[in-house]
Design brief:
With about 180 residues, this protein is mostly helical. Helix content is about 55%, strand content about 10%. It has one domain (about 5-155): P-loop containing nucleotide triphosphate hydrolases (Rossmann fold), CATH 3.40.50.300.
Length: about 180
């Protein structure tokens, strides 16, 4: 969801893992030469989503890094499939009410520039939750944890997944 902490958690996670961090929205804005909000208003959501898909595929060609995507990236089935097949996706799941607390003064999110932003967030959550789950390998519930706790939780999940993928052959020596 917009405002779930994707960029903040992603930056910290990348720093802890010594990976590159990329925010797809910032990358898109750099390429467009304007804000996403301006582009949305001028060209419409469909044109924006097409560019977003193209950038997503480019950005996921790297083998290591942390990518934060825009909240609407999952709207296109091809994006959900691409992300699930080519990356490890963590869905930072949070309630619309919590997102509203974080974003109520934010004027840069085009989908929230409406008369009732909380209702819009609730609508987005109900429309997108299943789409986020479809793309995700891991769902991380956000019950007001600190950024550090979220990063540690994701690192623990990654470590557990890596351990499960190591062949358990008696001839392999594991160092701890």
């Amino acid at each position: 969801m917009p405002g779930s902490g994707k960029s903040t958690v992603g930056r910290q996670l990348a720093r802890r893992l010594n990976f590159t961090f990329i925010d797809s929205d910032q990358e898109i804005e750099q390429r467009l030469g304007c804000s996403i909000r301006e582009y949305f208003e001028r060209e419409g959501e469909d044109r924006f989503r097409k560019i977003e898909s193209e950038v997503l595929k480019e950005l996921t060609q790297s083998k290591s890094g942390v990518l934060s995507t825009g909240g609407g990236t999952v709207l296109r089935p091809e994006n959900r499939a691409w992300l699930h097949q080519h990356t490890q996706v963590f869905y930072l799941r949070t309630s619309p009410e919590e997102v509203f607390k974080r974003l109520r003064h934010d004027r840069n999110r085009p989908l929230l520039q409406v008369g009732a932003p909380l209702l819009k967030l609730q609508e987005l959550f109900h429309l997108r939750d299943s789409l986020y789950r479809e793309a995700a390998h891991h769902v991380v519930e956000l019950n007001k944890p600190t950024i550090g706790a979220m990063v540690r939780k994701i690192i623990d999940i990654l470590a557990a997944a890596e351990t499960r993928s190591i062949p358990h052959d008696s001839s392999i020596q594991h160092k701890t």
